[in-house]
Every structure is written in structure tokens, then in C-alpha cells.
Amino acid sequence: MTTDNSNIDPITLSVMWSGLVSIADDMGTALRRTAFSEAVREGDDFSTGLFDRKGRLIAQGNLSVGHIGAMPYAVQHVLAHFPMDSFRPGDCIILNDSFLGSGHYPDIYMTSPVFVDDDLVGFAVNSAHHVDMGGAVPGSQIVTGVSEAFQEGLRILPIRIIKEGEIQEDVLRLILGNVRLPEIVKGDLLAQRNTNAVGVQRFSKMVRDYGIELVDAAIEAILDRSEARMRELLSAIPDGVYQNEDFMDDAGVGTEPIRFKVTVTVDGDRVKVDFAGSSEQVARGLNSYINYTRAYAVFAIKVFTDPHLPHNEGVIRVVDISAPEGSFFNPTFPAPSSGRAVLQVRIFETICGALASVVPSRAMAGFSHWSNPIIGGQDAHTGKSFICYDIIMGGYGARDGHDGQEALCPVFNGSNIPVEVQESNSPIRVRRLEFIQDSGGAGKFRGGCGVRKDLEVYASSATASLLGDRHKFQPKGLFGGDPGALARTVLNPDGEAEELESKEVKQLREGDVLSIQLSGGGGLGDPKERDPAAVREDVADGFVSALAAKERYGVDMGED
After folding, report:
1. How many Å apart are CA 8 and CA 222, to the nearest integer?
2. Quick one: pLDDT at residue 491?
3. Full DSSP string of 139-188
């Protein structure tokens, strides 16, 4: 139900909206600058949001899609456990439950009430990926070897970790007693507290400056206008039922491929995304709990309509997401899900593939996927535990008028972790980091090249949890473009090379080299229509070999 907000001065509304976004962004800056772990500080694996006093998302930081997309539902669960009148200034509530949060235990959500005098006026919320939450392997993202959520690590239902500004030491002690790197986890939890303190301080000041009545009216206007714009954009898409499917390699060694089946129904100014026909939930750590499914499905629709449209309650109102209970995209507890991060790109591109024929100008060929390996163990030189968390970005799929980009994060807005940081903090040496020639799919517009990263271990022993894909199913090309090359993961590529699976747990010894070789992005359009000058430039840059230039594009590099 909309509220009469027609009397708000448009300039005042614009200033207030910019202020809300600024607060969410400043929260993100605080978290990044005060975090301890590489995942948060370097990889940007976190997000921030502001909610009104009704618990509705009103503004977000420009950060991780999965976190912010699941955040409204996480806040709903917090409010279901804690009545509004139970909050006090300085409180911080945390949760990481897979169903209640964003799908796996490393992501901890922290919710803090915002008060002005004695009135609750909103909530500051953030989520951060913690480097470890216990469980079977370092990093808590195992796929193979678990069959239920209880094996994956420490499960935290909504609990007050900070009460009226005072840390609850017994709660903190319980958490830190179950993780491998307690100092780093504690540091990131305190960074999350700092983040919400920034949001609380700035949002409360805004309410004091403008008054709660005007702030409430502005929030209603922002949400209503976001909804109206989303409805307008959806109305421009022809009504119809659009389907697409794709497959992930498997759910770990020895399992069948995972089917992604999506049906997108556009009906006037609403859209429904249904995952019926996809695989059933699996007894491996890969399932997508419904909050995570919603997060990336809503994001895909928003990006396909208008990437710059704010993500808030208004947008969420007109997008319906469904998946059969007990399916891969809506599993029932205690289905394991610790490796669910690997699904995000495929959810996005499966939905976009369904709509590609309807709005071809916005379509994008398949991503090269990405890889999220975690190597952990004991550092013999220091005697301390270590966890090397990595995010390796590949190539984008081509789109109308543009080649795919290399080494940029698809969909979830993370960042490559600098080599220097990894080598300083872990017994790891990065032996190679390079683009893979000829890996991008050929097309009028070329797919982005895959990335190769070789990591040498110089701990006496370590455990590698591999989290990748596209070893078996190539990234799709579009409109006549070629698919990208397959990915590979190889142990000791320059010695007795051993091919590894995309989601394997492998024990490593000192001197072992783990080579992560990502697939290339898909191409778009007929390769023979590519500008020969662009092909020659690709050869000069090393993206395409002279042989591939001739065979794929018909460009002979020996010609004048």
C-alpha cells in the first residue's frame, strides 16, 4: 500500500536519497578499512544496507550482491526472533544460519537498531564473509565429504552479541572456540560492529536533521518510485514464458551434473522466475537455500532491465521467485550448502539466457565462471594455523558491441586478492598469474580470456578445498558465437601432472603446485564478421594466437 508523499520537495527528496546511499557506502568503507581478513579487506566479500523501522531495505552499499540480496530476509528472521520493543541502543544481533541468512556459515549478518532519543527509527545491517567458521576443512566451504549442514561448521541462530554497547564475552568465547583463526574472526566481528556504528550515527543524525515524519515520507516515496520504475521497465518486455537451462559439472567427485532449469514469466508489469525442473537437493555441500536463490534471481532481473536501478524493497515487490521445496534451489534443512558461492554466476546467466532472445541488446554470452579455492593448514615456519582464501576472476562473456573483459568479477562485485598480500600472510608462493591464450570464445565480439593462477605450497602439509566449475560444460556462446574453452585444475603441472575435479578436497605437501586454469567467456556473433583489425590487435596483445586468428576468424597474420 502506497503512502501520500506527493508534497515532498523533489530537491529535498534527491538530497535525502543521496544521503541514504552515502551512509550505506560509508559503512562499507568502515568495514573494508577495519577488517582483519583478506576475504573482507581485499576481496570485498561483504555488504551493507540501511533498513527503515518497518524492517524494509531502503539503501545498499555498492558491494556483494548475494549478501545484500539475502539481507532483507535475514532481517525479517531477526525481527521474528526479537520483538521491536526488545531492542536497545548499542545492540548488535548476529546470525549465520544457512536458511535464515545467505546460504552458508561463513557469512555472518549483523543487525543494529537505530534510535533517536527513545524512538526506534531504523536498522543498520552488514554481512561479512568470515575466513573460517569451523567444520571439516579450513575455510568452511567443503563440497565433497559432507552430507548434512551440521558437518559444515558453527551454526549461529539470531543472538545478541553486543548488548547496549557491551560485548557479550560468553557469546564471543563460544564462537572463537570453534574456529581455526580466532584472532582474525574476532577482528572481523569487531569491524562489523564498527560498520554498524557508522550507520547508526549517520542515520540517526539524518532523522534528527529532517524529522522522522519527513524521513518516513521520503522512504515511502523512494520505495514507491523504485517500484513504479521497475514496473515500467517490465512492461516494455513482451509478455511471455521464456525458458533456459544449463548444467554445472557436478556436486563433487563421482556425482551427476546439476541441472539449472529456469522459467521466466513476464506478465504485464510483473515477472516470475521459477526453478521447477532443476535438480533435486543433493547430499553434498552445494545446495542453494531459498534466500540465496532469491538474491541472485532478483539481481538478474534488475540488471537485465536497468543495472542502475536502486535495489530496495520497491524493486523486490514486483519480482516473484519460486522453487519447489526439496529442490536444489530450495532445499530443506539440514541440506549442506557451504560451497554454494560457486552457483551465483550460473543462476545469473541462466536467467539472462532465458531473456536473451527477447532483449538481445542486453544479452551476454556465458561467463568463464570463477574459482574460490581455499588452502589451509599449519605453517611450519611460524607454528600457526593459516588459511589462504582466494578469489580468481576469469573472463566475461561478450555482449552486443563489446568484447568480454578479463579478470573482472562477474555478478557478485568482489575483487582479486593481491599476490603480495597472499604471500605475506600465508606459506604460499604465486608462481604464475596470466591470461590463457585462445580461451575466449570466438565471435564478432570475443569472449574474455580465462585466467591461470599457479600456487605453490611451502607448508609441510595443507588442505585445498576447490570450488570451481566449467570443467565439463563450456560457457555458452550467443547468436553464432563460439563457447569458451573448458577450465582445468592441475596438481604439479610441470611435474607428474594430476588432473583434479572442480570441487575436490585435496591434501597437499610442501612443494606442490596447484594450477587453477579458468575457462574463457563465450563469444557473441559470427567470428567471420569480426573486424580484422580487432583480430590483429588481439594477436598483438596475446589474447589470440596467429593460428587461431586464421582458423577461427579467417585472418592470416602473414598478410599485409
Report:
1. 11
2. 98
3. TS---TT--SGGGSS----SEEEEETTEE-HHHHHHHHTTSS-HHHHHHH
**What is the DSSP-derived secondary structure letter of residue 372?**
-
Query: How confident is the model over 420-455, as pLDDT tens digits?
Result: 999 999 999 999 999 999 999 999 999 999 999 999
Which residue matches cell numbers 578445498? 465
Instruction: Confirm if 487 and 469 have CB atoms less than 8 A apart.
Output: yes
Nearest CA among 130, 227, 232, 124 for reference residue 188 = 130
Burial class (CB in 10 A: 0-12, 13-18, 19+), 37: buried
Confidence band, pLDDT 50/70/90 cuts, at residue 6:
low
Residue 431 grid cell: 608462481
Mean pLDDT across 324-350:
96
- H or E element that contains 73: helix 65-81
Residues near 192 by Cβ (< 8 Å), separated by ≥ 6?
Answer: 31, 92, 94, 108, 110, 126, 128
Residue 150: partners with Cβ closer than 8 Å, 6 or more residues away: 334
What pLDDT score does 411 carry?
A: 85
Amino acid at 190: L
The string over 168-202, giving b where at least 16 C-beta atoms fall within 10 Å of a residue's C-beta and e elsewhere, is eeebbeebeebbbbbebbbbbbbbbbbbbbbbbeb
Question: Whole-angstrom Cα distance, residue 441 to residue 95?
Answer: 42
The pLDDT, as a whole number, for residue 559 is: 53
Which carries the bigger pLDDT value, residue 356 or residue 5?
A: 356
- Low-confidence winner among 338-352, 403-417, 478-492 (lowest mean pLDDT): 403-417
Nearest residue to 286 (alpha-carbon basis) of 297, 276, 278? 278
Q: What is the DSSP letter of 252?
A: S
d(CA 77, CA 71): 10
Report whether pLDDT(58) > 90: yes
In this structure, the strands spanning 392-393 and 370-371 are antiparallel
Give tens-digit pLDDT for 254-303: 999 999 999 999 999 999 999 999 999 999 999 999 999 999 999 999 98
Q: Give me the residue spans of the domains in the chain.
A: 10-228, 364-560
Contact between 395 and 439 (Cβ < 8 Å): yes
pLDDT cut 70: percent of the chain above it: 99
Cα–Cα distance for residue pair 24/22, rounded to 1 Å: 5
Name the packing angle between helices 546-553 and 532-541 (round to 10°). 150
In whole angstroms, give the CA distance from residue 171 to residue 388. 26
User: Nine-digit cell at 173?
Assistant: 568465547
How far is 319 from 272, CA to CA, in rounded Å?
A: 6
Residue 382: band (very low, low, confident or very high) from pLDDT cuts 50, 70, 90: confident
CA distance 493 to 344: 29
Instruction: List all residues 6 or more positions away from 460 whose beta carbon is below 8 Å from its beta carbon.
Output: 378, 380, 509, 510
Q: Which residue has the cell 591434501?
A: 507
d(CA 548, CA 184): 47
Length of the chain: 560
